[in-house]
Amino acid sequence: MLQTKQLMDIEKIRKDFPILNVKVHGKPLVYLDNAATTQKPEAVINSITDYYENYNANIHRSIHKLGEEATAAYEEAHRKVSDFVNASFEEIIFTKSTTESLNLLAYSLGNKLKSGDEIVISQMEHHSNFVPWQQLAIKKGLKLKFIEIDENGLLKEDSINENITNKTKIVSLTHISNVLGTINNVEEIGKIVHENNALFIVDAAQSVPHMPVDVKKLDCDFLAFSGHKMLGPTGIGVLYGKKDLLEKMDPFLYGGEMIKEVTFEHTKFNDLPWKFEAGTMNIAQGIGLGTAIDYLNKIGMGNIEQHEKELIKYAMEKLNEIKEVEIYGPEADKRSGLIAFNVKDVHAHDTSQILDSEGIAVRAGHHCAMPLASVLGIVASARASFYLYNTKEEIDKLVEGINKVIKVFK
Amino acid sequence: MTQENMDPSFVGEGMYRENILDHYKNPHNKGEIENAEIKFTENNPLCGDVITINLKLNDHKVDDIKFSGQGCAISQAATSMLTDEISGKTLEEIKNIKREDVVNLLGIDVGPVRTKCAVLGLVAIKEGIKEFENK
Fold this sequence. Notes:
The complex is a heterodimer of chains A (about 400) and B (about 140).
Chain A: H1 2-7, H2 10-15, E1 23-24, E2 27-28, E3 30-31, H3 42-54, H4 65-84, E4 92-95, H5 98-110, E5 118-122, H6 131-140, E6 143-147, H7 157-163, E7 168-174, H8 186-195, E8 199-203, H9 215-218, E9 222-226, E10 237-241, H10 243-248, E11 259-262, E12 267-269, H11 283-299, H12 301-320, E13 325-328, E14 338-343, H13 348-356, E15 360-361, E16 363-365, H14 370-376, E17 381-385, H15 392-408
Parallel strand pairs in A: 3-15, 5-6, 5-7, 7-8, 8-9
Antiparallel strand pairs in A: 1-2, 4-10, 9-10, 11-12, 13-14, 14-17, 16-17
Helix pairs in contact in A: 3-11, 4-11, 5-6, 12-15, 13-15
Chain B: H1 18-25, E1 38-44, E2 49-58, E3 61-70, H2 73-86, H3 91-95, H4 99-106, H5 111-118, H6 120-133
Antiparallel strand pairs in B: 1-2, 2-3
Helix pairs in contact in B: 1-2, 2-4, 2-5
């Protein structure tokens, strides 16, 4: 605990993020929309500028100095991502987003499914882990099943066991819900999935940025996450897949880079991971993600997790004290650093607008999880989500802002 | 009130002026019409707002108008004001109502994102008329 405090000097960390000096409506920015996207440290911004100013070239094809430098930096970023989640180099594919990673899987794995096969997801999925499977099921006559949530926003154990059977081919679940904050026990669920000989996909968009994640320990078959939710730039996402599975899968996109040899009749595909990286990739963004990982490693993922645990515990306590506030999801010890809520008789958009006038940025809406909103019986909610640079003082400002919302709508 | 002479302080919390909050808390023409000729639901996927418009016609004029649904103060107040405004109007007159007209009814600067909320009711009405005329 003492060690955590020494290692996480928040004031020092905040100085690394130029945007945290910005004033919003004349007030200091209180950025609590990290589940949507995170801010970028100077090091990440500089690494992107450095690429464009000093060694911009296409990768894997240009036999000249800049091309070699760019290729080395891009491959180094792959290596950093592999190490970060304890995967091997061939198992990490860059995409543009978590959404693209999951679509890649729905397409490539979907090719091998037959009418009547079953796919299992849950009621708490983000649209990106919902719509691709729903559309695949419609197109191929598959059965899509949903693990239900209980009144605390946790996956129901009996629903897990009822839905995952020997007819199940794919189970795709979120590690952490972007609305409820629930941390799902994917390690245990994965065992049930594998007992039934199905493939296990983990949507880690909200977990990899906030806690240590080890794909070997989770023993998932695939895992997807995004760079921009972990201090990196937009336009870069990641797909992890077990090597033997990726080798058997068809490419998602065809074109340049993903080939070894093309004749008029046939194409021999490239080795992993390049087989899945067709066309010119987002090179600067890949390099930027690598720098973001260096930054996170320097702070330590365990420290970041601990810091957010303290913030969410504090935020839950404070928001629970306001009787007009309704909170969705489980208790603090079962959730990640985010909290979705509504102020009684006030639409989330109005809450968010008034908070904005105080310089506080939160998200309002259904958070790309409309089916979940319908289960919760709400149309929208406001959501505050934290990261390594947030402080308890900022949560106090959120509470003041919420009290102002209550006053305006009284 | 035109957009030019709007008070610039009507942003942020200034948006929530008394007349808007009044319309939000006590909306005019809220409800359903059983035998409405025009019935149309429009969503704003951004925030989950949903508005259903019911129009009862008499000789191509609006005889009765009601709306139902839920949403933010801006979408609900704007639709409440709009339903007052179009009572008794012909379908042709309604078709000429522009997005700016609705923003002017509110009398505040809603900004580009919230404009979608403000015009949700108008979009529902116009789409409903389109569907009715294509029948």
